[in-house]
Structures are given as C-alpha cells and as structure tokens.
Amino acid sequence: MKNIIVDRRISKEIKSNLSSIGYNVIESYKHEYLYSAIESHVDICLFFDGKIFIASPESYEYYSIILKGQKIECGSTRLSKNYPKDVAYNVSYMGEYAIANIECTDKIVLEQLKKNGTKLIDINQGYANCSICQVDQKSLITSDKGIYKNVIEEGLDVLLIQAGHIDLFDMDYGFIGGASGKLGDETICFFGNIDLHPDGQSIRKFIEYRNKKIVCLSEGKLRDYGSCIVF
User: Fold this and answer.
1) Cα separation of 15 and 74, whole Å?
2) DUF6873 domain spans which residues (predicted)?
3) In terms of Cα–Cα distance, which of 98, 7, 14, 102 is closest to 48?
4) What is the largest CA-CA distance in the chain?
C-alpha cells in the first residue's frame, strides 16, 4: 500500500476514494500561524523530490514522527502569515525541472535541487506548486500567465486555462495545482470533477494525449487542497 499526504480537511468522499484505490491517507500538518485557507496545505510546509522530505521548522517534528523511516530534513525558513513569507517550500518539482520564485525559496530546498542537477525556472509567482498541475517532466497546466510565459520560453509544453472555478475555503478561488496531484507516473488525480471546470475537456485532452490517466476523487466542483505527496 502506498502512502499519500493530503490536507487534513479533505472530504470523506475523497478520503474514501483514495483508500479504495489502495492509498494509506496521512493527514497534513496544521500551521497555526498561517491564514486558514492554506494552514493545512501539504505544499506549504513540505517539499519532496522523491528521495528526501524537507519540512518547515514548525512542521518538522510532526512530519518526523509520521514519516518515520523516511529521509527528512528540517528547512531553514520559518513560515509566517504574510506573503511571501509563506511560500518557501512551495516549489513545483518535476524531476528535470523545478519551478519556483527562487528569491523566496528555502536555502535547504535550493541546495537539494542543486544536488539533483535540477534545472531551476525562476518565476514571479511565489505559489508555484499551487499554480501548476504537473502532467509529466516537460508538461504542465496553469492559469497563471506569467508562469505560462516563463516556461514556454524554456521549451516546456503548457496548457493555459481560465483562472478561477476552483474552490479554496474562505478565499475567492483556488488554483489548479492545489486541486490536483500525481498518483505515480501514470495518473493525475483531481480533488473534484474536472468536467465541471469550463476548460475541463481541454484539460482532459492535454493529459490523455500524454498517455496519462485521470482520476476524479469526488463529484463536486474542484477544490484546492494544496496538492498531495505520494511515497
């Protein structure tokens, strides 16, 4: 059975569906100093490159316990409420590439990316992982026009979708990266029904063209839960 870390506030439907397809669901850390919409988002306090977890200092003890047996390091950046003090670990890691606002990214994370030989793409948006649905190592989906411009210039394949149409607790709307995740190399999951998004068919075509499967984990509107981490 594989493990998946998700926002502790996910719906019973999503949790049940993840369990039914063979995942052990692990609840994320709740950060008491961040605003409520993102306080339990996985990609706010935790970075994972497939080999090592890097956790914010506040969440390190919590994740060290629940990730016992996994390699985990403590990051150097403490998080706080006001942007960009909350985005140090919000890096979109795609393997060959990592997309982030480098100036705002934790130094321990940057050092790990350098060790991996990962090519960094610098963007203005601090919420990189929130804003990017990773499809494969060179393909992604985003509603952020700045990210779209930056990654197109690097030769990546990008689908630009409409902003909005994704719920995020008490905020006006959320983002496609936070409403999705990768279940291994072959499957993209969504927290909600992708067909309810106005660009749902384009998203489906973009993903399926790259021979990836789509799993919708609930029947309602897409909701931003800060993505997920599978290990």
Assistant:
1) 28
2) 5-229
3) 98
4) 42
Other beta carbons within 10 Å of 86: 25
DSSP assignment, residue 34? S
DSSP string, 50-97: SS-EEE-HHHHHHHHHHTTTS-EEE-S----SSTTTT-TT--EE-SSE
Q: Are 97 and 139 in contact (CB under 8 A)?
A: no
State pTM to two decimals.
Answer: 0.97
Residue whose entry in the numeric block shows the structure tokens 């670990």: 89
All domains in the chain, ordered by first residue = 2-230 (3.75.10.10)
Residue 222, amino acid: L
What the block records as the tokens of 157 is 């394949």
Task: For residue 188, give the DSSP letter.
Answer: E
Q: Of 160, 165, 158, 155, whose CA–CA distance to 190 is shortest?
A: 165
pLDDT averaged over consecutive 10-residue blocks of the chain (231 residues)?
Answer: 97 98 98 96 98 98 97 98 96 97 98 98 98 98 98 98 97 97 96 98 98 97 98 97
CB atoms within 10 A of CB 162: 12
